Amino acid sequence: MSDVPPEIETLIERMAKLPGLGPRSARRAVLHLIKKRSQQLVPLAEAMAEVGRTARECLRCGNVGTGDLCAICQSEKRATGEICVVEDVADLWAMERSGVFKGRYHVLGGTLSALDAIGPDELRIPRLVERIADENVTEVILALGATIDGQTTAHYIADQLDGVKVTSLAQGVPVGGELDYLDDGTITAALNARKAL
Amino acid sequence: MSDVPPEIETLIERMAKLPGLGPRSARRAVLHLIKKRSQQLVPLAEAMAEVGRTARECLRCGNVGTGDLCAICQSEKRATGEICVVEDVADLWAMERSGVFKGRYHVLGGTLSALDAIGPDELRIPRLVERIADENVTEVILALGATIDGQTTAHYIADQLDGVKVTSLAQGVPVGGELDYLDDGTITAALNARKAL
Ligand SMILES: [Zn+2]
Ligand SMILES: [Zn+2]
Q1: What are the φ and ψ backbone dihedral angles of B52, each rounded to 5 degrees?
Q2: pLDDT for B94-139, tens place per residue?
Q3: How confident is the model at residue A165, as a pLDDT?
Q4: Which B residues 144-173 touch A at CB under 8 Å?
Q5: Domain boundaries, chain A
Q6: Mean pLDDT over all residues of chain B?
Q7: How far apart (Å, rounded) are the C-alpha atoms in residues A190 and A177?
């Protein structure tokens, strides 16, 4: 649209790239923000710039944080000897919302996928193997989605981890379901009913 | 979630206030942005700040622009004597996408609504009456939604404008429909078949 100021056109284009937003909802969101310039647009721009300046990937587990280590890796309380392996940070947050897991995490950054040519080195699997050796790990809990790729990844990881108990979330994860969609109760049930692989 | 850095928590909360996004889609969007820090997060924050610095409401028509007058009001080509009255800027953009209207606009900023206690002074109606006197206006085209409030507003405006031809979009606007949802062809048909009020 030639008569829309280029600054606004640019903002709409960038907003439309967000997951869950298309061109139409991006236009709506941008007009909403312009109407609420001081209450919403300016604070949102600042919050975004602040995350751009501070957000970092935890060197140990792959979670997001603001230092070399995330808050969970920094907390000695979380050194229970249990590591929960998740596909991504959204799944870690879903586990944390359930409040049932007290240990630390390992964020793979995806699942093995022949179709997308994602092998073990594209994921954080070698780092997980190192952690088993370095930390006093007593149990690795695989909290991966009940998808084909998720389960392939779970079995591959179980094969890599010798001499440590490996379990996986069992009851409650619906077939084909993704962890981040589950309610807290389902996650709690699945964790409590975990079984040895 | 206590272990999410406060900077990220703040960004999620602010994103969740956007129309069309809830807490879950805001979390997804923020994680997506953090993953694409340099390609998406930083440019989006800058685009947003830039719009915050530059976006202004056109003093004449209420459209968004970057100066006292919007690009359409600045363009002498658009001084056709026709003014198209729309509810909001999203509707103005929808009209512009159809490309069929060559005149200028007047953005009301909503519709009259007894329920929401929105009267003529809450809208840009007095300014429209002034424009009829100040500019060489030959026709006012009411492009309001086919809702009860939209049609009430259309009739109120027609009553206020003496001595100028007032028409309204007719054919093509579905009953209960909002302008911004229509395709370009429907808008074109509705404009071409406009009828005198
Ligand atoms: Zn960590
Ligand atoms: Zn204008």
Answers
A1: -60, -35
A2: 888 888 899 999 999 999 888 888 888 889 999 999 999 889 899 9
A3: 92
A4: none
A5: 6-54, 64-196
A6: 88
A7: 13
pLDDT at A120: 86
Chain B positions in Cβ-Cβ contact with residue A70 (cut-off 8 Å): 3
Residue B31: strand pairing partners: none
- Are A89 and A64 within 8 A, CB to CB? yes
Helices marked H in chain B: 6-15, 23-35, 42-54, 71-74, 89-98, 125-134, 148-160, 184-192
Give residues with Cβ within 8 angstroms of B38, minimum separation 6. Answer: none
Nearest to A90 among B28, B65, B70 (CB): B28
- Which neighbouring-strand residues pair with B107? B86
Please name the fold of domain A64-196: Dna Topoisomerase Vi A Subunit; Chain: A, domain 2 (3.40.1360)
User: DSSP letter at B180?
Assistant: G
Which ligand is nearest the CA of A3, by number?
2
**Amino acid type, A148:** I
Complex ipTM over 0.85:
no
Q: Domain B6-54 belongs to what architecture? A: Orthogonal Bundle (1.10)
CB contact under 8 A, A1 and B43: no
Task: Kindly report the pTM of this predicted structure.
Answer: 0.80
| Chain-chain contact of B50 with A5 (C-beta, under 8 angstroms) | no
Identify which of B34, B49, B64 has the shortest CB distance to residue A55.
B34
At residue B193, the pLDDT reads 67
Ligand closest in space to the Cα of A73: 1
